[in-house]
């Protein structure tokens, strides 16, 4: 499991160093891992025999005998799968998490696990036929709903009919003959942002995904906090208006029901039909369904109603985040997901609500920023998770 309970063993730290930094000399590895030279050489020899690492030439001289460089074995490959409400993103990476094949296509998560995972397997099979990899060493999968991380299954996901308790991990492991790890989408996005995004050097932060649903990845002490059963951070179903609309979870007035991709499209349609928004009314006459992109474009054109819709949503999200800031005191809040495209009007309103409603001590040094990785946060995090579970096999 990707949960730190003790300090990682030397072999795991060694593999992570090579993943993140590339070839390193044996001498430098011994220094950085604080291992004796004989212990380091024994670890490296074992990992070479198991084809996790390989020699990579000679290092620059440090004043004495030149040390040999060590790198991750070039045969290592991971698959990263980010399933959204309306999309599939699949990447195959090498051991350093560099993308060697990528596939993105529209898909409806409501078509069920068999159809969606079958398509994922087809994409991975295509990469194999194309010579991208000989075999996969691990697979990371993110899904847009609550996940039992321990069991590798979605649990009662509101927007994923047919997925409840479906054995995603078991099926993918059996299909590809390698370990698989399954997590919810916002957790893998947080992991991705920590690995290669704006939160790269931050151990304590919140990643807020605003899309078809709303979730929060909680990153504490350098690790994702999932809670006892894996559902920590499900902030989209916090009630913010007892008189609000029905949510997909069956409750009334959830944050997600009031402001998400679905909620914003609903309010945009109402504004277009009533004539409150000339910009949205014009787009509606074109015949295509209204989306968050239409609201963002309308706001950019100065449409007052579009701007107000974004501000109201940002204020609601900011009020919920203010409570989380008071509770967890993070070092950063990162905003991602599809509705992050609403840009700085949304970001400014979230910031305003957080700073206004939280104690000064908690917000004096609290940046609230947009994701650097954008739509790639999920596949990046899934690849990181895959690498971790693969490296654990080296024990």
Automatic annotation (TrEMBL):
SUPFAM superfamilies tied to this protein: Actin-like ATPase domain, Winged helix' DNA-binding domain
Cited CDD domains: HTH_ARSR
PROSITE patterns: ROK (PS01125)
Classification via InterPro entries: ArsR-like_HTH, ATPase_NBD, ROK, ROK_cs, WH-like_DNA-bd_sf, WH_DNA-bd_sf
Xref: Pfam families: HTH_24, ROK
Family stated for the protein in its record: Belongs to the ROK (NagC/XylR) family.
Name by which UniProt lists this protein: ROK family transcriptional regulator
Organism per entry: Actinoplanes utahensis
């Amino acid at each position: 499991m990707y949960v730190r309970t003790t300090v990682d063993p030397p072999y795991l730290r060694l593999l992570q160093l090579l993943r993140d930094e590339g070839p390193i000399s044996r001498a430098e590895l011994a220094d950085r891992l604080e291992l004796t030279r004989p212990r380091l050489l024994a670890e490296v020899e074992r990992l070479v025999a198991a084809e996790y690492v390989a020699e990579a030439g000679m290092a620059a001289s440090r004043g004495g005998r030149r040390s040999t460089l060590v790198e991750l074995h070039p045969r290592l490959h991971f698959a990263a799968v980010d399933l959204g409400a309306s999309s599939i993103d699949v990447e195959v990476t090498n051991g350093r998490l560099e993308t060697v094949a990528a596939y993105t296509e529209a898909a409806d998560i409501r078509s069920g696990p068999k159809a969606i995972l079958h398509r994922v397997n087809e994409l991975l099979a295509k990469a194999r036929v194309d010579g991208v990899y000989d075999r996969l060493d691990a697979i990371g999968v993110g899904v847009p709903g609550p996940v039992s991380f321990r069991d590798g299954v979605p649990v009662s996901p509101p927007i994923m009919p047919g997925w409840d308790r479906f054995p995603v991990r078991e099926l993918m492991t059996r299909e590809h003959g390698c370990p698989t790890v399954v997590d919810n989408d916002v957790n893998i996005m947080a992991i991705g942002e920590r690995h290669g995004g704006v939160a790269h050097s931050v151990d304590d932060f919140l990643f807020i995904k605003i899309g078809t649903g709303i979730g929060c990845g909680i990153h504490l002490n350098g690790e994702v906090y999932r809670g006892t059963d894996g559902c920590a951070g499900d902030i989209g179903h916090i009630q913010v208006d007892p008189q609000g609309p029905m949510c997909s979870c069956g409750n009334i007035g959830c944050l997600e029901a009031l402001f998400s991709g679905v909620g914003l499209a609903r309010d945009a349609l109402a504004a277009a039909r009533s004539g409150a928004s000339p910009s949205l009314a014009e787009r509606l006459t074109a015949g295509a369904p209204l989306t968050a992109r239409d609201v963002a474009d309308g706001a950019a054109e100065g449409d007052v109603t579009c701007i107000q819709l974004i501000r109201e949503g940002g204020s609601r999200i900011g009020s919920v985040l203010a409570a989380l800031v008071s509770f967890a005191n993070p070092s950063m809040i990162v905003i991602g997901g599809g509705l992050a495209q609403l840009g700085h009007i949304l970001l400014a309103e979230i910031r305003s609500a957080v700073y206004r409603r939280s104690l000064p001590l908690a917000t004096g040094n609290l940046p609230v920023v947009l994701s650097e990785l954008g739509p790639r946060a999920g596949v990046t995090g899934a690849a990181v998770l895959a690498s971790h579970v693969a490296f654990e096999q080296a024990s």
